[in-house]
Amino acid sequence: MIDDSTRVAVIGAGHGGTAAVALLRQHGFAGSVTLFGAERHLPYHRPPLSKTSPESGSGSPDPLRPAGFYPDQRIDLRLDSPVLALDPVAARLRLGDGSEIPYDVAVLATGARARRLPVPGADLPGVHTLRTLDDACLLRGGLRPGRRLVVVGGGYIGLEVAAMARRIGVAVTVLEAATRVLGRSAGPDLAAWLTERHRRQGTDVVLGAAVERFVPGPDGRVAGVGLADGGEVPCDLVLVGIGAQPCDELARAAGLRCDDGVIVDERGRTSAPGVYAIGDMTRRPLPPYRGLHRLESIPSAGEQAKQAVTDLLGLPAPRPEVPWFWSDQFDLKLKIAGLPALAEKSVLRGGPTDEHRFAAFHLDGAGRVVAAETVNAGGEFMVAKKWIAEGTVVDPDGLADTARPLRTLALEGATCPR
Ligand code: FAD
Asked: Measured in whole angstroms, how far is the alpha carbon of residue 317 from the centre of its chain?
């Protein structure tokens, strides 16, 4: 049990870490709180990095909290201070200057890093990845009307950057190795619908395109992307958006249980007493979905911050969450609730022909809604989230019929608590 003499060290000043320190103070914790950040910027919002164009954005970071928040809340924010080692037995952290910091409770929130493509030319100037504000500044510096951008990978970040670049007149090619975009994170109907929207905006979306190398031009900068079929796509710059890897090396070196992320329980507890982990770096149970899941989303990092902080303060667990995620592309507001990959049946509400609106509901074998993917359909998203939380069985024929209001579709007496 912690008290006001307890020293909490939070490692990683991103979305999860900043939420955790704020929650500690909101719940009245009066002990010492230190937030270590590897970056030199005040903790900032990541979503605008892939969505805000060089022209519409001011180029300056969008801070998560104003600078005064940290001193006002007696949070010792240490920027540009990567933690190099964690010793869970001695309860000490080691910083880059060699200093050792004792703690009583540590919360790891070191996030993830952009995955790199291990092909020749991956280090050429003009080949970018996108995770941090500094990455975004470099990428944006190269996005100008008339230039040619190749996006490697049709995931959310790649598609968001493609949309942002098209808005400012950049010629965009998306090269996706699989047979559809969003293979890891969305159902095939949404993927096909979204691909069509990007193509209509002038983006060349190439599926089944395996990148083999980046080709330098005479000035040494990337000038082309070589494909396995022998083709080459000329370009002025490249964004590699092929997913992220957990920053779990501190935890692995400290002997914490890890498997593509730090393994935590439903309260963010790691295998080491007194050490929690939250956010993109973790893999965790997420009932009612089977197995362990590594989610990369701001709502997920925020929920885990709540789970960990309430646990370390001895407070009741927060209500079970419904995982969700959003993405903005052109004028399309995507919102996804639940985990679509685990569904057995999918129903489109309204069919795929509407160009501005989309809703797909995913049901398990018992007819319960386990996930929903929506675009510009906030009402459907909200209802689906509630249904997922309550394990509601719905009438699938009614779901497909937009003339039938959603509220009439829950099958009476069929709601199963999860
Ligand atoms: P982060 O926010 O990445 O924070 C981790 C921090 O830890 C980083 O600042 C890192 O520098 C620091 N760190 C790492 N190692 C150390 C160390 N050893 N010592 C000290 N500090 C360290 N999610 C959504 O839900 N919606 C969106 O629209 C969306 N858009 C996104 C757009 C982009 C371009 C990116 C990159 C991500 C986006 N995400 C979005 C995902 C979302 O940003 C992440 O899920 C979220 O930031 C995870 O929070 P986190 O605290 O785990 O990691």
From this structure: 23
